[in-house]
């Protein structure tokens, strides 16, 4: 993005650094539809949707040049099973059973992709019924397993993606997924990992989304403080079980057509149905606009763990460490890894500000390519937001009780380097 295009967001990038507020709702449940690619800039998205934390829908024009839109879909808009089998038939994929509840989700198994496609074809022939239940291929890391395939290109609006930047750097995981499922498959009520943003693009098929703005989920909890599995269940109207349901707003409803992309704001709980045989590309991501929300989420998660095992605090010498281990097993991250997450983001931005953007290096490194696209001003914004969260983490009592000797550089040294880089960049 050139400097002139990006200039209109300068005021946001030079803000005080407070985290973006949770949207109280949308007038009349309206969700903006972005029609044209050439008239909608990253600055527009940043100002109107990322900062205010509002959902929107991108038209099919934003995905029309994707390889998956060309090759994974038949002329009549159905999944192209033969092409998919040819490319991915031997892969092993995670499959959930939508007809079975296991805690607050559906049980999963690993199946060969060719076996899942065979099931899907039979399911269609049998009128969308099967003794095996309604099976939904979910959370498939296809891009990681098949990086050479021309599947899609991440739109520039979602390119400031710290989650995948970090997990690519440590080569452990990623948050890029493919979903495939028959008509009637669905995902129960939830908010995304770390209260991240998410975007979901339909390659083919249609989805129905029920969205609740951040904070509305409090009215949907039962008398024990648990969220519902299905927000459409009649039991929610039982005031003895769900005493605050009557105070909740109706959900924001979206019907997403083939080719369209839905942007889900940070911390918005949602439930999703496939209205037809559907394939989608999904990313979860965090950036400077919602990293403070992620940090608040982690503090809440640790506090919940501490309450659960508080009775063992005195007899357990390493109680604080055990709380971190339990939190990581539940959420996928602990405080020390969160520090390393912030460090990778900060050091990438500092490197760019100190050394400039090397085109050859940017071509090899997705994170530097994103910084190159968004520009130096965005790198400074990222550093300012990182500095505020890192300062809060460094002062956090639970973090300071951990053995931090293995962290390099120390949190204090990193924060000093980060603040110095910001000061130099703003001169």
From TrEMBL:
Pfam families: Cupin_8
GO MF term list: 2-oxoglutarate-dependent dioxygenase activity; catalytic activity, acting on a protein; metal ion binding; sequence-specific DNA binding
Sequence ranges assigned to domain JmjC in this UniProt record: 143-302
Catalytic function, reaction form: L-lysyl-[protein] + 2-oxoglutarate + O2 = 4-hydroxy-L-lysyl-[protein] + succinate + CO2
Superkingdom of origin organism: Eukaryota
Coiled-coil positions: none
GO biological process terms on file: positive regulation of translational termination
Cofactor(s) needed for function: Fe(2+)
A GO cellular-component term linked to this record: nucleus
Protein name: 2-oxoglutarate and iron-dependent oxygenase JMJD4
Organism the protein comes from: Malurus elegans
Encoding gene per record: Jmjd4
């Amino acid at each position: 993005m050139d400097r002139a295009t990006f200039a209109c967001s300068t005021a946001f990038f030079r803000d005080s650094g407070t985290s973006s507020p949770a949207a109280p709702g949308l007038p009349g449940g309206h969700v903006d539809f972005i029609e044209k690619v050439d008239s909608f800039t990253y600055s527009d998205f940043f100002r109107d949707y990322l900062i205010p934390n509002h959902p929107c829908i991108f038209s099919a024009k934003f995905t029309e040049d994707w390889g998956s839109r060309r090759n994974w879909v038949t002329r009549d808009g159905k999944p192209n099973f033969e092409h998919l089998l040819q490319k991915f038939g031997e892969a092993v994929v995670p499959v959930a059973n939508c007809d079975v509840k296991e805690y607050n989700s559906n049980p999963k198994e690993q199946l060969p992709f060719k076996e899942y496609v065979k099931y899907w074809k039979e399911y269609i022939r049998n009128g969308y019924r099967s003794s095996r239940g309604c099976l939904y291929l979910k959370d498939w890391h296809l891009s990681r397993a098949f990086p050479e395939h021309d599947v899609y290109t991440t739109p520039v609006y979602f390119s400031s993606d710290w989650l995948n930047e970090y997990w690519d750097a440590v080569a452990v995981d990623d948050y890029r997924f493919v979903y495939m499922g028959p008509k009637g498959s669905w995902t129960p009520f939830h908010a995304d990992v770390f209260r991240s943003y998410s975007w979901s693009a339909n390659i083919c098929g249609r989805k129905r989304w029920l969205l609740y703005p951040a904070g509305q989920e409090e009215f949907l909890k039962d008398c024990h403080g648990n969220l519902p599995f299905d927000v459409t269940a009649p039991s929610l109207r039982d005031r003895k079980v769900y005493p605050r349901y009557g105070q909740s707003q109706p959900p924001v409803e979206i019907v997403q057509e083939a080719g369209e992309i839905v942007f889900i704001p940070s911390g918005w709980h949602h439930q999703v149905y496939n209205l037809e045989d559907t394939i989608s590309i999904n990313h979860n991501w965090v950036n400077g606009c919602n990293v403070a929300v992620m940090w608040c989420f982690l503090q809440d998660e640790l506090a919940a763990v501490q309450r659960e095992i508080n009775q063992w605090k005195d007899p357990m010498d390493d109680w604080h460490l055990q709380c971190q281990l339990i939190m990581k097993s539940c959420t996928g991250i602990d405080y020390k890894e969160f520090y390393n997450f912030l460090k990778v983001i900060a050091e990438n931005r500092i490197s760019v500000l100190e050394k400039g953007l090397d085109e050859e290096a940017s071509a090899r490194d997705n994170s530097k390519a994103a910084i190159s696209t968004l520009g130096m001003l965005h790198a400074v914004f990222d550093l300012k937001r990182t500095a505020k969260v890192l300062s809060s983490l460094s002062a956090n009592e639970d973090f300071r009780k951990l053995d931090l000797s293995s962290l390099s550089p120390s949190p204090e040294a990193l924060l000093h380097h980060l603040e110095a880089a910001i000061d130099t960049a703003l001169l």
